[in-house]
């Protein structure tokens, strides 16, 4: 070591200069606003559920209705998972609805007309979805055409392809396993148990619910312990317990209601798996991190060695596969692949992502947020139709909610920018 | 004096953390050509932005009077109404519109809301004749060369009844013939009573054309030279530009220079936007272990282009030359290759190219070395936190935690995050492009200490800087770059600011062949100018 007389310590003594604001005093006001931006969506969701529960005299939370909300919105939620990744990267996909239609049609032709065994047909359909995504990803990532244009073209192309494949008529019915996946419920493997005044409920469903809850608690606790081990700051224990308790109550309420009706819908299990997998991907995987880097600052990501083009390509492939999955489920639920299937689904998925806190400029968003955004719209749809509201009023409210959510996002960002 | 058309008094303008102008005064006489000289960052462009209302009244302190009347411009239109027109270094033409449409943009020749095309094209033709441009007014701007586009800008200014014309580096992208034509035109305009303020790095041009020259340094007015009373030579201007005492403090260091790490041989880079333009020409550089090497050059000399082209071909097309690392030739075709071969590049524009401002410190630090924190594609986020926190401590990043968003940090702390990011990739060669731009003095000292520490650890460091004292205080050896060519290699012992400045400015006239001729049509994409990453805020 050479003689480095004045070291960092000397500078530290001179303290932060005028242009060097010292560690921003983590004022409680600021922390609160940050929390509001991150958790505002969940608070809003809770309020909306509460509102419609009151307005519908509790009909919203009836066992059968909860089951309906999950099953009716499952395909949009699946699309929302793929869409949020694309939006985080700063792109958009307008073709998702048409891809849902064409993959549903292909699945129908394979299973109904060609008598391909259903597992194979399912696999082929997913691969076709991936190829469609690769086609669009190629033009966007490697040819440099804006995603808006490529997927707008895709919206027309794949709708045309749907009509061609179907010969302008519906094809059905689907084999039973596919219908069960889309529309069915788990069997009462372990029989029923009595829940006092709530009546009988499916034991298997309850056990799955308890296992899921235990899983959440264990994962959260281990992460907390690990953080403490690395001397990172964690939220105070009472708050931690309160949050887990709240999550537990929500999960168990839903599960108990479902167990009282017809057990767990298969799509709910599928969705839970997808949410878990994609949350992990976005939080923990190198690939997921690179999606945020690309959307946050494309140039900085490029200069940090991220293979930007490949990242963009693969999120579109992923979107294609998820759209195919949604296509199969949608067709299976209707028990028929129709020419108008999936109409405007992409718009619902995009709205879900933005209501769920994605930023218009990219770089920000969460899988769970998009799912919550999708559920908000689902609850509004469902709640208003329970109240007998005409569809134009439902549309009006959904439009207002979307605008308000994005306005809130822009507003918080502008305030944050002003204080910079 | 009564014949001053413009008087600016005690102009002070501060940006967060930086004082760009400090009590600057400037007076310009009616009907003269007034040159403004200064190093990059001396405050020239800022001063002109204050004058033209880009920075509105109230965002600076001091007084401006034009024609004897005080001025409080709130935007550019305000100043243009008074006859002050600024032509920026980046031309503000719409490439897809015709010459005539550009000239009258925002100032359309119309009656009752409908454009009178005959009048538009006729008047445009007259203006083109005045600036000596023989082109049809309906020609699309993207179809003419950069030199001619500059003339269109001047015609546009004339259409606004300009009284004071400000040109910011008008000849930077022009070849010698176009430059000469432009300077002749300015003399002609002067004879018609139009006052000109011209900012230029080309001191020979300034010395030749200006009636008086004001020199800025570090945001202050140093002096105004008048050729009628002073003897004005390029050397005289240079000594005014750099004659600053070395009162900056640099942490002491005893260099222990080892073996050669990276050799750049015959490195030639072409502009990606201007076909055929050579940006870096046959450059040869050597970097050694434990050595801090400087790269000096004025704006547009090709410093950043050189660095970025070496860093995985992030800039430029048709790159030729060899990179020899530890005695073996390496192929670096992407940023990933560069990182794998132990080359790191911290960009000059932190906010645009260096950081993801909406993400936290932790994720920015891990951005380039994420695979080192991952196993089979999964990131160990606890270790990530730990690593980031270690850098927060060792680099003295002032933030409540590594979960703070980088967009909220000061410039100095942002720079420390960028440096941490690259140090984490464990490079042998670190290229630092303007590492202290926009950073206050205390934080600069910290950055210098970090750079010294890295050199002591045996890394080879290449520092690009516009501040000559910084290079002199920090580096063991300095290369000068002018118009894309390495013009000198100077050991610290022999280096003085005057010496370096001469090599940084002189090369340009001698190596005019590095540029294309005026007949070369503009770039196909119509951008008019090369997308020069060095054209940041001055």
From TrEMBL, chain A:
A Pfam family assignment: BPD_transp_2
Membrane topology annotation: Multi-pass membrane protein
Key words of the record: Cell inner membrane, Cell membrane, Membrane, Sugar transport, Transmembrane, Transmembrane helix, Transport
Region (Disordered): 1-26
Residue spans of biased composition, Low complexity class: 11-25
InterPro entries, per database record: ABC_transp_permease (IPR001851)
Primary location group: membrane
Localization: Cell membrane
Transmembrane segments: 40-60, 66-87, 94-112, 118-135, 142-166, 198-219, 240-258, 264-281, 311-331
Function: Part of the binding-protein-dependent transport system for D-xylose. Probably responsible for the translocation of the substrate across the membrane.
PANTHER family (UniProt xref): ABC TRANSPORTER PERMEASE PROTEIN YPHD-RELATED-RELATED, XYLOSE TRANSPORT SYSTEM PERMEASE PROTEIN XYLH
Protein name as annotated: Xylose transport system permease protein XylH
Organism: Plantactinospora mayteni
Name of the gene this protein is made from: xylH
TrEMBL record, chain B:
Keyword Acyltransferase: no
Domain named ABC transporter: residues: 6-243, 262-508
Pfam families: ABC_tran
Segments of this protein annotated with the region Disordered: 507-538
Coiled coil: none
A molecular function GO annotation: ATP binding
Keyword tags: ATP-binding, Cell membrane, Membrane, Nucleotide-binding, Repeat, Sugar transport, Translocase, Transport
NCBIfam families: GguA (NF040905)
Name this polypeptide is given: Xylose ABC transporter ATP-binding protein
Species of provenance: Plantactinospora mayteni
Gene: xylG
